[in-house]
Amino acid sequence: MRIGDFYERSEPVFSFEFFPPKNQQGVESLLRTVAELKQVGSPDFVSVTYGAGGGTRTRTLECVTRIQQEAGIPAMAHLATMGHTRDELAQVIQGLVDSGISNILALRGDKPKDGLTQAGELGHATDLMEFLASDFDVDFGGACYPEVHPEAASASDDMRWAKKKAESGARFLITQLFFDNQDYFRFHDEARTAGIRVPIVPGLMPITNLAHIERITSMCSARIPEELHDRLGAVREDPAAVMAIGLEHTIRQCRQLLKEGAPGLHFYTLNKSLATRVILSALQD
Ligand code: FAD
Predict the structure, then answer these.
(1) Do 173 and 200 touch, CB atoms closer than 8 A?
(2) How far is the C-alpha of 284 from the C-alpha of 99, rounded, in Å?
(3) Is 73 exposed, middle or buried (0-12, 13-18, 19+ CB in 10 A)?
(4) Ligand 1: does its nearest atom lie under 6 Å from the Cβ of 166?
């Protein structure tokens, strides 16, 4: 079961992203969230992030394995080079393969704020991809950035590395979250012009809390369109109104992306099911 194959079919591929909880109670709660989401419409696959330098790394393996085995949903493990030697990465990858996980999102990882974690022995995502392609029987994808990665020397340089990911064997690229579909469409067109042929999957984060989304967008340099930000700002103190405006926006984004032929939708769920359930139900209507 290779996730790259899913994108070769004609219907859009739906996927949900989770992060590994800090404790065992959190893992059980995550499995309940996955089960709730499965009731509304089973995702084609789920993915679980990998903490670059954090203490939750071993939980990524536990979560992907349990989701795949207990919920019966294909699961993809994120893997970041940050802070790892080549041998450590080989052990993590072998652990995934031995547990039946054959899909990986290959990343460099964010630079941790602990000041202790060193860059990985394999520096960039493309180095990890070359390692995966040469030594392991797994399928993998990578990340890309419609609004340009914050550390990139330029947009064209960033595009060059996105292309290198496809050349290194990535079968699909999942975008950083964005709130203006024009950013995705422009990036998609430029990627095709640059010769990137793999599916470019929109990554979407439903807005449910303004302060939270402001913090996330400032970290990853994503832009909330001014008009949307003004509308959300006007009801900042009313959580239900923020959520209603945020979800209405995401639903509109999803409908337009699907209409224009996006290969799928990847939801950053933040381990909560409500927002994604509302969006999926609206899309089914
Ligand atoms: P890279 O592709 O290595 O890019 C990093 C920077 O270096 C970019 O500016 C790029 O232009 C440049 N670059 C790329 N390749 C080269 C090269 N070969 N030589 C020189 N420069 C190069 N982070 C986590 O820690 N854990 C996760 O689970 C996680 N999941 C994510 C999922 C998605 C869908 C996305 C979009 C991001 C995710 N992130 C995660 C965040 C990601 O790790 C950060 O955005 C990180 O800063 C860059 O990761 P990357 O894999 O894109 O790095």
Answers:
(1) yes
(2) 34
(3) buried
(4) no
What whole-number distance in Å separates Cα of residue 216 and Cα of residue 208? 12
Q: How far apart are CA 183 and CA 259, in angstroms?
A: 16
Quote the Cα angle for 279-206-228, to 5°: 110
For ligand 1, atom 24, which residue shows the shortest CA distance?
Answer: 109
Is residue 176 in contact with ligand 1, taking CB distance under 6 Å? yes
> What φ, ψ does residue 194 adopt, rounded to 5°?
-75, -5
Q: In sequence order, what are the beta bridge partners of 267?
A: 16, 204
Q: Which residue numbers are catalytic?
A: 17
Question: What pLDDT, in 10s, does the model give residues 211-230?
Answer: 999 999 998 889 999 999 99
Cβ–ligand 1 distance for 122 under 6 Å, the answer no
**Ligand 1 midpoint to CA 233 (Å):** 30
Q: How far, rounded to the nearest angstrom, does the alpha carbon of residue 80 sit from its chain's CA centroid?
A: 13
Nearest CA among 208, 206, 271, 273 for reference residue 36 = 273
pLDDT tens by residue, 60-90 = 999 999 999 999 999 999 999 998 999 999 9
Q: Report the separation in Å between the CA atom of 107 and the middle of ligand 1, taken as the mean of its atom positions.
A: 5
**Per-residue pLDDT tens for 150-195?**
999 999 999 999 999 999 999 999 999 999 999 999 999 999 999 9
Is the shortest distance between the CB of 276 and ligand 1 below 6 Å? no
What's the predicted TM-score (pTM) here? 0.97
- Beta-bridge partners for 174: 143, 201
| Dihedral (CA of 158, 110, 146, 142) sign | positive
